[in-house]
Design a protein that fits this description.
Layout: H1 6-31, H2 37-49, H3 69-100
Helix pairs in contact: 1-2
């Protein structure tokens, strides 16, 4: 016997919405290893009968794309940091040369 938590049910519902029965089956197999095949299918049927509100995915899983306002702002910050780093390195090189001469 095992327990299906709300987190498990949401994950299975989300997988089913995004990829159908095969994705839901893969999610069930990932969460409960070692069950017989007919148990997997019965578990999916039972979980899909549950009315679960699946929250929207709000967390970004990758950096914003270039060409979007967020992506352009991110790129600008990266370039500014690179410029500061180059300037710092240039100043350090000049100090080192001045010490040797």
């Amino acid at each position: 016997m095992f327990v299906v938590t709300l987190e498990d049910a949401i994950a299975i519902h989300r997988a089913h919405q995004q990829g159908g029965n095969d994705a839901a089956l893969a999610e069930v197999r990932r969460r409960w290893l070692g069950l017989a095949e007919h148990v997997y299918l019965e578990l999916i049927r039972r979980v899909m009968r549950l009315k679960v509100e699946v929250p929207a995915i709000t967390d970004r899983t990758h950096p914003p794309s270039p060409g979007t306002p967020e992506g352009d702002e991110r790129r600008q910050k990266i370039n500014e940091k690179k410029r500061r780093d180059r300037e710092r390195d240039r100043v350090l090189r000049e100090r080192i040369r001045a010490g040797r001469e």
